[in-house]
Design goal:
Blueprint (H helix, E strand, L loop, with lengths): L14 H14 L3 H11 L9 H10 L1 H18 L8
Helix pairs in contact: 1-4
């Protein structure tokens, strides 16, 4: 991720809550319904690259970083807080 995106600014500070948050974030990124809801609500879409060329292009333009910059705050408000988690 780019240097201007600092995950700890969005994550719980307490180590056990951070672990739970990170696990839930990881799962959310793999749940089609959540990803679809995010895309619908924000207009952000991104699919993981399927080739080395796609990976190089994504890295060059910062596609994954841009997606995560939008997804993590949205996740905190729409998923994590619904689970009783606190915002960072």
């Amino acid at each position: 991720m780019s240097e201007d995106f600092d995950v700890p600014n969005f994550a719980p500070a307490e180590p056990l809550m951070f672990q739970k948050w990170a696990e839930r974030l990881h799962l959310a990124l793999r749940e089609a319904d959540i990803v679809r809801r995010f895309a619908t609500e924000t207009g952000h879409t991104w699919n993981p690259p399927s080739s080395l060329l796609d990976t190089s292009i994504d890295e060059a333009v910062g596609a994954a970083s841009a997606y995560m910059k939008a997804f993590v705050p949205w996740f905190n408000v729409n998923i994590w807080s619904d689970m009783g988690g606190d915002h960072a």
